[in-house]
Every structure is written in C-alpha cells, then in structure tokens.
Design a protein that fits this description.
- The protein is mostly beta strands.
- It has a single domain (10-98), classed as Sandwich (Jelly Rolls).
- It has no helices and eight strands.
- The strands form two sheets. It has a four-stranded antiparallel sheet, with no helix packed on it. Strands 2-7-4-5 form a four-stranded antiparallel sheet, with no helix packed on it.
C-alpha cells in the first residue's frame, strides 16, 4: 500500500513510547512491520532523527514543545532518536500509526 495522506491514521494500541530528553541521543525500540508513520509530540524542545540505528544531533529536525503533534513517515524496523535542544527537559511521545 502506498503513502495515502487522505486516509485516516489509526494509532496502534500499546505501541506508544515516551523517550526522555537529555544531552545524549536516545532511541526508541524498532517499529512494527505494519507501521508506516509515527505521531510525535514533545513536552520540551528537542531534535529527532529516523533510521535503522539513528543518532539524533542538535542539527536534526527540531520539534518544539509548542508544536502540534506531527506525523513522521517511517519504515518497519526503523527507530526514532531524540536529543534535547539546549537545556530543555521533558519527553518525546511516539505513537505508532497505520492506515
């Protein structure tokens, strides 16, 4: 199934992760085979990277605590990594979603 932005996304029960923001990059567990995207939201400003073995850098995609939840396309087996922006504290909430 191709990428379809018109289709509604469905969160997968029990597939949420909270990653603590810190000065070192922290990665999620690998995403399931049926996952095409993740919804992310943060309680503190942070930077994220996606890949098989990602390491987030302070030059990667910025997610602000004031941002609305965002959908990020991922592939099965990939992970998302997060690192704090400056001295921000909080968590990155990651929810696996599918069509």
């Amino acid at each position: 199934m191709g990428w379809q932005t018109q289709s509604p996304w469905r969160p997968l029960a029990g597939k949420g992760q909270n990653l603590t923001l810190g000065s070192a990059s922290v990665a999620s567990t690998a995403f399931a085979d049926n996952v095409q995207a993740v919804q992310i939201s943060a309680t503190g400003n942070c930077h994220v990277a996606v890949g098989v073995t990602p390491t987030a850098l302070t030059t990667d995609m910025l997610v602000k605590a004031t941002d609305n939840p965002q959908l990020v396309r991922v592939a099965p087996g990939e992970k998302i990594a997060v690192i704090q922006d400056g001295t921000s504290t909080g968590t990155l909430n990651v929810i696996e979603v599918t069509h």
